[in-house]
Amino acid sequence: MKVELVQAGLPDAQTIVDMQKKPFQKLLETYRDYETNPGAEDIQKIIARMEQRETQYYFIRHNQMNVGALRVFCEEGGALCRISPLFILPEEQNNGYAQATLRLIETMYRPHTWTLDTILEERRNCHVYEKAGCRKTGEVKTLKEGMHLVRYEKTIA
After folding, report:
1. What percentage of the chain's residues is helix, strand, coil (to nearest 5)?
2. What is the pLDDT of residues 117-137, one digit of tens each?
3. pLDDT tens per residue across span 81-122
4. How far is Cα 117 from Cα 119, in angstroms, rounded to an integer?
5. Which of 68, 36, 74 is nearest to 55 (CA)?
6. What is the DSSP letter of 90?
7. Cα 45 from Cα 59, distance rounded (Å)
8. Quick one: 136 exposed, middle or buried, by C-beta within 10 A (0-12, 13-18, 19+)?
9. What is the pTM of this model?
10. CB burial of residue 138 (10 Å; 0-12, 13-18, 19+)
């Protein structure tokens, strides 16, 4: 699966907001989590993140079409990087784009450790990260009854 990551900037903030609403809508309806769900974020939150020196957004492209996006946040020194969020448009899911993106981003950044969170109850999401070599750290945060965030980590040798 060939994907490319294209850096997004402030002029792309509205596109990011519009795109991320689609894949997170079902989760928003299921869990009614308007505080942490990326589908509930407004453009100001995206702009604030884009203005962080440690943050970079990328469009995930296949055949020159945006099929998703991700945000990478690296602490100073770059030893620890976090992915939050990573999403693929619903109509483009199950094509291997998330796996290809995770492999590609690992070649672009050279942190010692990657971290990310996902909803524990969403087994498909957990499977995607586990398949990419991420392991549960044991850190689980209860957001509400029936909704838990689980932390994943991948250490690069």
Report:
1. 35, 35, 25
2. 999 999 999 999 999 999 999
3. 999 999 999 999 999 999 999 999 999 988 789 999 999 999
4. 7
5. 74
6. G
7. 17
8. middle
9. 0.94
10. exposed
